[in-house]
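User: Show me a protein chain along with its predicted structure.
Assistant: Here is one chain, sequence first, then structure tokens.
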Amino acid sequence: MAQASRRPAALEPWQDANARPFLRIQNITKTFGNTYAVDDVSCDVYQGEFFSLLGGSGCGKSTLLRILAGLETPNSGRILIDGVDVTNMPPYERPVNMMFQSYALFPHMTVEQNIAFGLKQDRMPKAQVAERVDAMLELVKMRELRARRPDQLSGGQRQRVALARSLAKQPKLLLLDEPLGALDKKLREHTQFELMTIQERVGTTFITVTHDQEEAMTMSTRVAVMDAGRIVQVNTPANLYEFPANRFVAEFIGSVNIIEGRVIEQLDGEVRIQADGFENSFVMDHLDPLPLGTSVAVAIRPEKLSVHDERPVERPNWVQGKVVDIAYLGDVSIYHLLTPLGRTVRVQITHEQRYERPHYRWEDEVFVSWDSEDGVLLLG
């Protein structure tokens, strides 16, 4: 009997050399005085993506978003939307709408009037305005609240009204500036999934700016991590987490242990590293040969580490340590281990079963281990 074969997964647009980018950001630079807010940034975004610009304060993400909206003019570079150069086009002529962090709703208008405002400004026929507003109210589940004013709504409801108003003009590109920043944690988590559902239903390309890595990882098809005005890596959330391109991305996305050292042996598809501040050496996957003495850093996520009461002789990498800090978070516990040479290692253990106490107590002596493929080797 013939063996069934798995159908290969379809290529995502960014994996397809023949796919045409919907948005092209080409060598955009923006300065304020002698400060480079955006420094020679290039990036492609594809039709229907939920794309996030992620970074800390001052990294240039909001300036780049304002350039896309036409609210800032770049010193150099080009912006193309659906093949059209909009670099010098005023905001009102671009097929773009922007949802601001403050939502900017008109306090004297009802929900319905806020959503209809832009359509009336464009002199859309009254019947079409009513039809479009009804569709937007249905999209964001606000039909029963159409007559309320913003001060009669919760933060999450105001956010949905602002989204409906932004989508009412059917822009080709919707820009969202910290769209969930004003919401509390629980509502923010719920609204992330609402936004994803709405974006999938309307098919509009979304670009959002956020400093919240969890928000970006949850909602995005891809994320561009920014630092000091530059994009340092663009990839899917999973690949950013598992395969960071450099130390900055490894430390910015999630929790990580960074172990510095130097290459002391080249093996078949692996390298042996003498780590700074650790008694023993470690073996890590790395296909390309590295000269002996090369400075490297090993990035290992806390959940990749296994914990043992005795030394795990069957695994290539292990560290002994004493429990000095414990954080119980419900679904997981975080342990900080202090090694004999004074280094701290962070470990995360998932609570798969109910426990009356943490797995380990303060001052417990334990071993942690990992396989050669569990970490990422970073150069430089």
